[in-house]
Amino acid sequence: MDRHPGGPTTIVAWAGKDASKFFNEIHKGVKIDSYLRPESHLGNLGVDGDLMSDEFWHTLREARIVEVREEIDRVLSETAAKDGHKADSLPRLLQDKNLDPQLKLKLQRLETQKRAALDSEDYAKALDVKKEIEKILSDQAHAHMHDIPLDIPNSSGGIPLSEVARHNKPHDCWIAINKNVYDLTDFLIHHPEQRNSILAWAGRDATPMWDKIPGRFPSKQWMDFFMRSEWKMGDVGTEPKRDPVYDQLKQLHDELRRLQGPSKEDIEAAKTAVKVPGKTDAPTLSEESRFPKLAEISAGKELPFFTRAEVAKHTTADEPYMIIHNRVYNLKPLMGSHPGGDDILLSKAGTDTTKDFEVFEHSEKARVQRDRDMLVGQLVPGENTDWSAEATVAQVVGEETSEVGRYMKYKATDIAVGALAWYLYKTLQNTKPLSQFTYSRALRHLHLIMAVGIFGAVGTAQAASYSEGQTRKQMLWWHKQTGLAMLFALVVRFFLRMQSGIPPRFPGNPMVQMLETQSLRAFYVLALLLPVSGIANEYFLKWAPGSDKTGNAEDDKRNDRLAKQSIDAHKLLGKFLQFAWLPFHLGYTTFYHWTQGRGVVKKVSPFI
């Protein structure tokens, strides 16, 4: 690399890749052996699915960071020596090595406070922080360090659209309409109901959209009649000559930001400016504290930083990003194998899905596999959420129950206690022996209990599909417990059925009798397969041996595939039970015999 005529940059750009075509195009048939020492040859290229290790990739990244920094220093030094070029924006000023450290830290903290105020929609505070920054920069002791525009531009020469584009935030909103520039900041603060439609055009020329709005009389003169005169900043002017150095520096700074994330000063400023609610000395409910193996996966990795706005841009099937416990994941490897299907992943892409993720109680094995295969970065510290012990686990998986919710829960408990008391009362009233030619009393009681359990399992599944957060988690928990109870009851019912008498069948059409028989057989099959498929899904997701035990990555893929097949079968059987078996068994068979005057309820009721 030291002797390469083209410098080390070209070699680093192709490091870890097959550069045969690129090398042959430049060197025109000259063999590489004539350039390198014999000891440089490591061997022939073999078949390897992972040619670049994480450690080597980070080595390349660090080398590129050094190159970008040197390039920035070179451009700045050449520009300063040429015409005394100064920073014309706050980010460029903060990159100035000659800037006083105390002033730099103060500006960073104020800039972070402004971003935090914008995130919390406190636009009045953001405007105050912006004015404080401008006051510091306009001070005589600091004004000579920069060329950042602070005052309102001279309206006599017009305001270029590039200047309007700088004012595109709720606390600093300019819009160009019909060759005039307006400052609508005060209007936004006092009229939040119009915020979204105006912010969509903040910092832009909104004339094309403005002229399409119906009902203006005419729209081009409407602003002259109704807009306050002090909101008009001036006319739209011609664009000044663009400095190519600015574009070059912006491109380099953007690349440096992607490679290394925010600086230590940025992180310290974020921690100082944004106070996380809750006691700082309280134990946290972080994933790594609950699942220690996660710390081993991320140990030694230098993860790039993302803002929530950057993550929100990744919503396609090619790059579905999600935020889970302040970390950013690319879920592309999970597409096609997620037990819940791809639709649920794409519907949540670009958002913070921590609450939804915790609702389904993912196992430590699933979390380790997620971090190993899909972890791509972390949130900037200023945008982190701290799940402190003060808020309890309920804050992670859902909101606290409202007063109405608690009232309904108490009433549901009262109804359940009343139903149980009524059931015990009726049971004690009906204790006489039954004929050996009918169902035993124990089998009758179990039949009623299983009927309630089936409706409970179907009802909790439906309730979970229409709820979120803690409520959804509770409904899923009840659904699982009811399913396990029905599996146990099925085994008990089988033995009771073998010992019980069997009453004669109701007379009727042989076809109807055959359908009734198949319906009962289908019930036993459904009552067995539904909980078994649910248990299989849990097993392959949480307990089946994976690569962490066997060392074979194919085991994880197999477990994911089997888990998805299990939950798909569970959902399909559940739909058959809900929309086919129950309507036939209750809506046809039972109702049919009841309309014929036959005691179908008395045949299975325990209260006789």
TrEMBL record:
<keyword id="KW-0812">Transmembrane</keyword>
<dbReference type="InterPro" id="IPR001199">
    <property type="entry name" value="Cyt_B5-like_heme/steroid-bd"/>
</dbReference>
<dbReference type="Pfam" id="PF01292">
    <property type="entry name" value="Ni_hydr_CYTB"/>
</dbReference>
<keyword id="KW-0408">Iron</keyword>
<keyword id="KW-0472">Membrane</keyword>
<protein>
    <recommendedName>
        <fullName>Cytochrome b5 heme-binding domain-containing protein</fullName>
    </recommendedName>
</protein>
<dbReference type="InterPro" id="IPR050668">
    <property type="entry name" value="Cytochrome_b5"/>
</dbReference>
<dbReference type="InterPro" id="IPR011577">
    <property type="entry name" value="Cyt_b561_bac/Ni-Hgenase"/>
</dbReference>
<keyword id="KW-0349">Heme</keyword>
<keyword id="KW-1003">Cell membrane</keyword>
<comment type="similarity">
    <text>Belongs to the cytochrome b5 family.</text>
</comment>
<dbReference type="InterPro" id="IPR036400">
    <property type="entry name" value="Cyt_B5-like_heme/steroid_sf"/>
</dbReference>
<dbReference type="Pfam" id="PF00173">
    <property type="entry name" value="Cyt-b5"/>
</dbReference>
<keyword id="KW-0479">Metal-binding</keyword>
<feature type="domain" description="Cytochrome b5 heme-binding">
    <location>
        <begin position="303"/>
        <end position="380"/>
    </location>
</feature>
<feature type="domain" description="Cytochrome b5 heme-binding">
    <location>
        <begin position="159"/>
        <end position="237"/>
    </location>
</feature>
<keyword id="KW-1133">Transmembrane helix</keyword>
<dbReference type="InterPro" id="IPR016174">
    <property type="entry name" value="Di-haem_cyt_TM"/>
</dbReference>
